Amino acid sequence: MIIQKAFGVLILSGGFSSRMGYPKLFLPFNSKQNFCLHLYHEYKRAGAKQFIVVLNHHLNTDYWTDKLEEISSKCTIVWNKQPEKGRLYSISLGLKAMERPQKVFIQDVDKPFIKHKDISKMLNAHQDNGYLQPVFRNKHAHPILINPDIFQRIVNLQYSDKTLKMILQDYKRNFLAIDNSKIDININTLSTYKMHFSHIQNL
Q1: Alpha carbon distance 49, 152 (integer Å)
Q2: pTM flag (> 0.90)
Q3: ∠ CA 132-12-127 to the nearest 5 degrees?
């Protein structure tokens, strides 16, 4: 039986998408959903209550208005005006926008193949003494699920040269085998996108 637990989702899309040449969160996942909205629906099916999307502020233009409004109708958008500060800074911005410390999935928008059943399995396996990382065939994958203590630690952190990996070293890492061969596929170039989404012709 699936145990419903309150949790949040932090979707990261604060980079420049320079290798892709197109904002990754707007990439079509299927005929109806882009990457961001597909992730939203998978996490929603698993019971997520709060959705934060961290975006590069360069996307905050009239050109993307329609797509941004579609996302903002379902998720809270946080604008990262200093993406050069790196991934941990984006995570901190997103967590600060959440209502309270809670369990949170840290989800890269360019790894869109997570399924709601994977999310539910991770929630049920999560332990409060650290964070949970999925594994497929002995390979460490993403997203990770952090506990409220890690949440608060990141929020309280003053900007420095630390990385998320450095923060997580102070906590127990728990692993969970996930039967999803695509869970850690990173869509970071146009050729990689076409390899996995050859059926989509409208990009």
Answers
A1: 18
A2: yes
A3: 15
